């Protein structure tokens, strides 16, 4: 056995000793997290292999992970980055590239929901574009196609739309709008990897689609994300924005992929200036490491099982609570959609007189972790009080989500016994706070 094989054998033994112990669930004593890492020895072994390679930027594991991601999504181009937030920045910035036939320009409008995660919104602002906020639907938490259509103006050039908590957008109607009005679609799939719409994977509908591999999401690299697109030119633009803004698209450690490294003349540079040091965009360095990619590669092998576990947990909880419509607005999904759920949202009806803070506290005190729906109505957040913006109609639902919506986990670490305890605890909370029998 080589030294490398011996190290990997020891890593597997370490996983068994440190992480493989069965943990017995005790209702009310064992904390149920809303999300968490689910892994086995393979993640540790790939991570150790990448460490032993000591290739400190993207390398063989990153290339393999990108290939597996493309295969899963049925998309020709996938580009790893160091977070879902970076993916959002790369994608939106790429849409402003002068290399596109119709680049976004400062002052152009981008429609996006008021209930969102900050880094879906931030790249719009950072690129000098104007966000146009639309209200969300209470039962999907998404921006509906009708609200988007009503928000269109002569300045509208793009849509930046998340599949909130994994629930698929009305993609057929939204794609009709983009085609009719010549709009770009940035499809935010950070919560939704593994879901489908009309049989097609979420993350494959946008001009650019983005994914997050933060530990709370469907698979993890720790910190990581990806940009998905369907044309070679758009892939090269995104790679440029990710890689310092350089015009060269060589992989790390590779030179002269284009075959004419010293035969370009771009901008005001002299002919033959080294293509590896030629910059066609104002970019960043947003690459992940190969060690992160190694973890992602092991995770994507488990993705089909993770998808089924999330769906099973979601539907078990849904069935256990679906008779509580008098008190709670439960999730609704499009008949064409088969979501891979990020979480289970509970929106407390105003007429129920149940206080959402007390409701969350009731669950938390019984060791069921809850979260609010990201930033709530984001224009109420302190960072966004003075941004240039347009608000398309009342944001009544967004305000209600901000005050009355919480979510619980459905991630693969939640067992049927945990899900049953979550169901009973929600019912007990309603009994206690509303004074009714349910």
Percent helix, as a range, is 25-40%
Q: Per DSSP, what share of the residues sits in E-state strands of 2 or more residues? A: 5-15%
Strand order of the largest sheet: 1-9-8-5-4-2-3-14
Span between termini: 62 Å
Q: Which structural class is indicated by helix and strand composition?
A: alpha/beta
- Kindly report the oligomeric state of this protein: single chain
User: Quick one: how many beta strands?
Assistant: 15
The gross shape turns out to be flat
Mean pLDDT: 96
> What is the count of helical runs?
13
For the biggest sheet, the summary is: 8 strands, mixed
Contiguous runs where pLDDT drops below 50 for at least 5 residues = none
Indicate the radius of gyration in whole angstroms. 23 Å
What string gives the helices and strands in order? HHHEHEHEHEHEEEEEHHHEEEHEEHEH
Model description:
The protein has 438 residues and is α/β, with parallel strands linked by helices. The chain has 13 helices and 15 strands. Strands 1-9-8-5-4-2-3-14 form an 8-stranded mixed β-sheet, sandwiched between helices. A 4-stranded antiparallel β-sheet has the order 10-12-15-13. It has a 3-stranded antiparallel β-sheet with strand order 7-6-11, with no helix packed on it. Helix 2 runs antiparallel to helix 9, helix 4 crosses helix 8 and helix 11 crosses helix 13 (416-434). 46% of the residues are buried.
Could you give a quick summary of the protein structure above?
It is built from 13 helices and 15 strands.
């Amino acid at each position: 056995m080589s030294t490398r094989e011996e190290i990997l054998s020891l890593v597997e033994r370490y996983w068994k000793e440190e992480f493989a112990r069965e943990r017995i669930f005790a209702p009310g004593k064992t904390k149920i997290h809303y999300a968490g890492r689910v892994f086995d020895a393979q993640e540790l072994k790939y991570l150790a292999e990448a460490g032993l390679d000591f290739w400190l930027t993207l390398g063989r594991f990153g290339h393999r992970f990108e290939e597996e991601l493309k295969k899963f999504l049925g998309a020709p181009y996938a580009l790893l980055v160091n977070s879902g937030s970076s993916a959002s920045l790369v994608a939106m910035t790429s849409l402003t590239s002068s290399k596109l036939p119709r680049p976004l320009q400062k002052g152009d409008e981008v429609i996006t929901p008021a209930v969102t995660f900050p880094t879906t919104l931030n790249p719009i602002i950072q690129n000098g574009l104007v966000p146009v906020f639309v209200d969300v639907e209470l039962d999907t938490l998404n921006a509906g196609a009708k609200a988007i259509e009503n928000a269109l103006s002569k300045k509208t050039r793009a849509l930046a739309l998340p599949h909130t908590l994994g629930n698929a957008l009305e993609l057929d109607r939204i794609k009709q709008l983009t085609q009719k009005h010549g709009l770009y679609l940035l499809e935010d799939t950070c919560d939704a990897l593994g879901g489908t719409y009309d049989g097609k994977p979420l993350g494959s509908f946008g001009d650019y689609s983005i994914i997050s591999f933060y530990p709370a999401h469907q698979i993890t690299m720790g910190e990581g994300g990806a940009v998905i697109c369907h044309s070679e030119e758009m892939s090269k633009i995104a790679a440029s924005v990710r890689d310092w803004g350089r015009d060269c698209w060589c992989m790390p450690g590779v030179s002269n992929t284009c075959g004419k490294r010293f035969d370009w003349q771009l901008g005001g540079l002299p002919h033959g200036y080294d293509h590896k040091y030629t910059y066609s965009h104002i970019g960043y360095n947003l690459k992940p490491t190969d060690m992160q990619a190694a973890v992602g590669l092991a995770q994507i092998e488990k993705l089909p099982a993770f998808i089924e576990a999330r769906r099973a947990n979601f539907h078990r909880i849904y069935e256990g609570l679906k008779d509580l419509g008098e008190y709670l607005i439960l999730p609704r999904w499009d008949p064409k959609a088969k979501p891979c759920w990020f979480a289970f949202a509970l929106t407390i009806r105003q007429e129920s007189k149940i206080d959402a803070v007390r409701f969350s506290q009731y669950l938390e005190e019984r060791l069921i972790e809850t979260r609010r729906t990201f930033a709530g109505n984001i224009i109420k957040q302190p960072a966004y009080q003075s941004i240039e913006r347009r608000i398309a109609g009342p944001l009544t639902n967004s305000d209600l989500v901000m005050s009355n919506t919480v979510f619980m986990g459905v991630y693969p670490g939640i067992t049927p016994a945990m899900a049953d305890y979550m169901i009973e605890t929600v019912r007990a909370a309603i009994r206690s706070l509303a004074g009714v029998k349910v």
